[in-house]
């Protein structure tokens, strides 16, 4: 927080007054990275969530979500990585990290329920949500695109293909 204040050329108290303590700043960074704007946007108000909900079939829902994750991950991966590392030494950040993980899991359950409403699933909804939760993690993007040199487009196709194969029953 001291480094942020110094870089901004303001007093530390000004940073605290503007965004709050470290967990609040971390939450703001995460939310703005997800939204791609300078403010947090609740999940149900995000354009891609609304498009997924309106999509008529599972293939379209999956394609839309894979595209959204591919757009979000480059903004989110580094922020989450820093917060995850800092969480080991900071109980407030550890609690935030756990809250984020649980919120992601709840969002994946909603996504899977939306899929199940239009197509039969290969696995039970809880397992399907866990699969999406694990495979859409920013760490996966960082590994494949950041470290293995995949293009974002290849990653997007990988996600969509993986989810179709693992989640949807043969039709």
Order of helices and strands: HHHHHHHHH
How much strand content do the residues show? under 5%
Count of beta strands: 0
> What is the overall silhouette?
elongated
Oligomer: single chain
Mean pLDDT: 86
What is this structure, in a nutshell?
This protein is an all-alpha fold. Helix content is 76%, strand content 0%.
What would your notes on this structure say?
This protein is an all-alpha fold and 171 residues long. It has one domain (42-167). It has nine helices and no strands. It is elongated, with a radius of gyration of 18 Å.
Reconstruct the topology from this structure.
Blueprint: H1 2-8, H2 12-19, H3 22-35, H4 47-54, H5 58-87, H6 91-116, H7 125-135, H8 138-147, H9 152-167
Helix pairs in contact: 1-2, 3-5, 4-5, 5-6, 5-8, 5-9, 6-7, 7-9
Q: How would you describe this structure in keywords?
A:
171 residues, mainly alpha, elongated
